[in-house]
Amino acid sequence: MLVWNVGPPRSVGAFLVSEGSARHDASGSLMARRPIILSLTNMHESGMRLLRASAEVRMASAVDPATLRREVVGADALIIRTGGKVDAALLDCGKDLKVVGRHGVGYDQIDVEAATERGIQVVNTPGANTESVCEHVFAMMIGLSKHFPRMTAELAAGNFLFRTKMTGRDIYGRTLGIVGFGRIGRRVGEVAHAAFKMKVLYNDIVPIPPEAEARAAARRASFEEVLEASEYVTLHVPLDASTRHMIDRAALARMRPDAILINCARGSVVVESAVAEALDAGRLWGYASDVFEVEPPPADHPLIGRPDVLLTPHSAAQTVEGLSNMATGIAQDVLGVLRGEPPRNPVNDPSLVNANRRRLGLAALSSF
Ligand SMILES: NC(=O)c1ccc[n+]([C@@H]2O[C@H](COP(=O)([O-])OP(=O)(O)OC[C@H]3O[C@@H](n4cnc5c(N)ncnc54)[C@H](O)[C@@H]3O)[C@@H](O)[C@H]2O)c1
Fold it and tell me: How wide is the angle at C-alpha 182 spanned by C-alphas 208 and 84, nearest 5°?
C-alpha cells in the first residue's frame, strides 16, 4: 500500500522572496513577507490548509492565457492541475516566479524547458495517485468486459432480457499488455497478476529492475508484440513526442479484434478517430478512456455515447485519497522550494535551475 508523505508541515521559517516585482531586481534575501501563490485550481482542504498557513493564496479567476498573464504578476509560485497552460509567455509575466507546482503527475501542459531557462523550479506529485488510477483501470477493464455501458442502457430502457443477448467475459487469466511500465503501469501489473492471475506483458523505453518485473510476473516485449498478443492493452506513458499518437491506425491494426484498449494516460496518446473506425469495423472489442485529445471533449465526439466505449471525464485521480495526496504533496514541495529547501519531486534539474538563476543574477533557490 502506497503511503504518501503527509507528515507534519515543515517549520514555517523564512521564505526566499524577492522585494519588488521585477525578477532582475530580486535580491534573494530572506524576508518576512509571506510568499504569494497563484493557484489555477481548487484543491483538497489538506493542501489548502498547508498553503494558507504559510502563504497568501490567490485563486486564478479563469485559466485563459490573458487572465493568467495578468494574475501571475507578483506571484512567487504557481500551482496548476489540468486546466490552463504554463508557457514561456506566462512565465515572462511572472517575473517573481520561483516554482511551478503540478498537482498531479503528467506535466505536458508546462513548458519545462522555458521554466528551466528562466530559473524556475518545476515540481509534481509522482506516486500520489498511483493507487487511484490503478483502481480506475480495473474498473474500466472489468466494466467493459461485462458490457456495463450497454447493460445499463438496456436496463434503463426496460429491456431486462438483454442479459441473455450479450455475453460478458472474465478478465481472470487473460493477457494484459502494459505500455509504460512506470509507477502506475507496474502497480496495474502487480494487481493483475496477484488478483486475476493475468499474464502480463509490458513495453517501456527504460530498463526495468528485475524485482519490479517479478512483482507482476511480467515479461518485457516489443511494442508490436504487446499490441498483437494482448486481450487488454493499457496505456501508462507520459504525453511527449515519443508517445503522441502512438496508438494510430497502424497500431490498432495490430491489435486483436477481441482486445479492449484502456487509456488513463493522455488523450493524444491515441488517435481517437482511428479508435472509432476500428470499433465500427469490429476490429476492436471496446475502448475505455479517462482522457481526451481535447478536454472537455466536444458534444459530437465520435466516441461519446457508444455502447462499446466507457468514458470518464479525467476523473481517475479524483478520489478522496488521490486528491488529498496530491494536494498535500504539492503544497509541501512548493512551500519547501520557497523556503530554500531542495525539491522532493523535481521535474527539471535543480542544479540547472540554479545555474540559470546565477546567470540571470538571481539568488539560488536552494543551497545544495
Ligand atoms: N487519468 C489521470 O487522471 C492520470 C493520473 C495520473 C497520471 N496520468 C498519466 O499517466 C502517466 C503515467 O504516470 P506514472 O505515474 O506511471 O508515470 P511514470 O513516469 O512513473 O511512468 C511512465 C513510464 O512510461 C515510460 N515511457 C515513456 N515513454 C515511453 C514510450 N515511448 N514507450 C514506452 N514507455 C514509455 C517511462 O519510461 C516510464 O517508465 C502520466 O505521465 C500522466 O500523463 C493520468
Answer: 150
